[in-house]
Request: fold
Amino acid sequence: MTRNSIDIASRVSPALSALLNSRVNNPECEQPVTLKAVRRFLADLLPADFKEAERLHRIDVSESLLDELDTLIEEFGAAALAVDFIQTSASEPLSRAIETVVNDENRENPPTLAAVRDAILDGLGARLVGDGTLEDDEGETLLSEIEALIEQFGADTLAEDFLRYE
Reply:
């Protein structure tokens, strides 16, 4: 299966992204998880009378997760990998670290994930803990989290794309 080259995760609601993520990370799910498999799982959770009405009338008052999945299946196919539709963002502590690197006045180019990793290796986490921006335990997880993002998305990916605003 080829992966979709456009940023399709940005077109998915947070609720559907969370559902897809839970299915992809469930060790009991047959891998790789496809949109069709997630739709089947979701449909099996619905009461029988709702499923019958959905099948007969195809109407719904508000856009449901099922409707959203159907739209994605129609556009990308039932065999599309669910992992491609999961929104990924950094944790709050890593977002603070990324923001610190982004706001560095000495930086000429937008930082990549590799640049943030280098800053963490150069003591950024310890500085943020010392400044009171991060708790001790938060500073300890930065390197493993940035490494996981690099493994999944590549070292040259812009770090700003993973900022989490809450």
Notes: DSSP finds eight helices and no strands in the chain. Residues 8-85 form one domain. The chain has two domains: 8-85, 92-162. The radius of gyration is 20 Å.
